[in-house]
Fold this sequence. Notes:
Elements: H1 15-26, H2 32-41, H3 48-75, H4 100-113, E1 121-127, E2 133-139, E3 142-144, E4 147-153, H5 157-164, E5 167-174, E6 179-189, H6 192-199, H7 204-212, H8 222-235, E7 248-262, E8 270-277, E9 280-285
Antiparallel strand pairs: 1-2, 1-5, 3-4, 4-7, 5-6, 6-7, 7-8, 8-9
Amino acid sequence: MSEPHDARDEAPGSADAASRAANGAASGGANSGAAQDAEAYHGHRAHPADYAIESARLAEAAATSAEAAARRARRAVDPAAMRAHYRHEGLREAELAGEPFEQFAHWFHDAREAGLHEPNAMVLSTADAQGRPSSRTVLLKAYDRAGFVFFTHYGSRKGLEIEENPWVSLLFPWHGIARQVIVSGRARRTARAETTAYFRTRPHGSQLGAWASEQSATVASRTELDALYASLAARYPEGADVPAPPRWGGYRVVPETVEFWQGRENRLHDRLRYRRAGSAWTVERLAP
């Protein structure tokens, strides 16, 4: 049998009484001693400052507990158990356009109509002269029968690697509609006139950013980067004509192959790949 609570041991407005008061209230009054403390603590003898301090402590403890539970839940996620169910409809050779750029236009339209976020985002993979690969996401800014165009700093890691090894890969990961497009080919610099024309369409802030960022180079701090941007903003205020940086420009990826991947049931995906054959294209089906 537990000993009865002696109110003489604590002042009614003490922090310990407050803690037992809150805990007693949360347990539905099962603990009679806590219920007595709650009554005493909330009476006229309780000091408001003590109650506020204890309430804040309890709230902080609850938040900490919730955060710990969330961390445990994140750790419990098992990627091997993740499953996606793909569509019944597939991709047949008879449905393909005669060349990959027209087929890409159809799928790109579908991705945009489906509301995918930045359907022009593509993973660009490059490799240096020793074959060491690197990947990053860039934005497609133009495409036609000549190839797929993006813009960057020529002194960036991707720019330097392309100069050493022009063979690259592009991947459009349209997961929301269970589709991918994979382009393999050579990257070539666009003409300066094409770079300048595109640069003029960029928002003013993005134009200044192209000057401020020596892409892929180390910087001492964010403060240094922001200070450089601020100095450029003072030199080229909104509405001013900002020239394109000399080491910034476009690349056009001229494809050798373009694969169209459609997710299917049971992992039996459809993979149809265009392959350049002189001035024409052939189509081959790949095992999933």
